[in-house]
Amino acid sequence: MPKIIFLPHEVLCPEGVVAEAEPGTSVLDAALEEGIGIEHACEKSCACTTCHLIIREGFDSLGEPDELEEDLLDKAWGLTSASRLSCQAILGETDLVVEIPKYTINQVSERS
Questions:
Q1: What's the pLDDT score for residue 69?
Q2: How many CA atoms lie within 13 A of 108 on its CB side?
Q3: Is the per-residue pLDDT at 20 higher than 90?
Q4: I want to staple 86 with a disulfide (CB 3.0 to 4.6 A). Which of 20, 51, 96, 103 is the partner?
Q5: What is the predicted pLDDT for the residue at 44?
């Protein structure tokens, strides 16, 4: 079973997390299963950028992003060439190393 190594994030997982997930699982679902509260304002429907991640290792093992995901990623804070929306990044057979960006853009956040 492939592993997803979540690099330390100051708020969501200060010490980092190593998770195992079945191939075919989204990176977001694997994170949520491990208690990593990655924001997902659109409830995983590929309609926002709040679940943006940077894939530091294993990027090529993920399927190609579709046009909608690419359009949304253009609006993500801290976009890199290795950025993906975690709700759309589906785990294959290869381990991943991912970074959760420090900030996210949420146009509809109800947090104060």
A1: 96
A2: 9
A3: yes
A4: 51
A5: 92
Place of tokens 């993920």: 62
Question: What's the rounded Cα separation, in Å, for the pair 55 and 6?
Answer: 10
CA distances (Å), origin 50, targets 2, 22, 47, 83, 95: 24, 23, 9, 12, 23
Strands 96-99 and 17-20: unpaired
Residues in the chain: 112
Closest CA to 103 of 79, 71, 74: 79
Task: Tell me how far apart the alpha carbons of residues 81 and 34 are, in angstroms, rounded to a whole number.
Answer: 26
Give me the residues paired with residue 4 across strands. Answer: 19, 96
